[in-house]
Design goal:
By secondary structure, the chain is α+β, with helices and mostly antiparallel strands. It has six helices and eight strands, in the order ααββαββαββαββα. It has a four-stranded antiparallel beta sheet with strand order 3-4-5-6. It has a two-stranded antiparallel sheet with strand order 1-2. Strands 7-8 form a two-stranded antiparallel sheet.
Amino acid sequence: MAAVLESLAGLVPEPQKARARSPASEAIKRARTCYDHLAGELAVAFTARLLAGGLLCAGEGRRLIVTPAGKKWFANKLGIDLAKLKPGRLGLACGCLDWTERRFHIAGPLGVSILRRFCQLGLVSRSRSSRAVTLTKKGERFFCLELEIDVRSV
């Protein structure tokens, strides 16, 4: 059922007029949790960069495959040992349709590990009162230097 709803959400046209957003809704749009993984503009940009860099590749359906280069990158840059992750029904990683961006971010065991490591490394901090996630100064440097993502535009 979730897959059907996510597929249908991708068919909804973009709104014609941009609406004024509160600072809280802007923060949620930029970065938030989606169940137990990272979502929002930041997560979509991160996922797109990993795909473009050949660290992930699309598999069947929503499944995402970690390439050999990706395994090394996750181990060396984030300290995630993929061999220790237990694959879910869609493997280690799958695409989750982002409701604000209408593009995919990383879910599954890898998505959970990424958010956990981002928090442990001090790259992001989670809000205590909402699903919002804030990128720290250290996180800004990481996304800029390691991934060449301009965090000012996400």
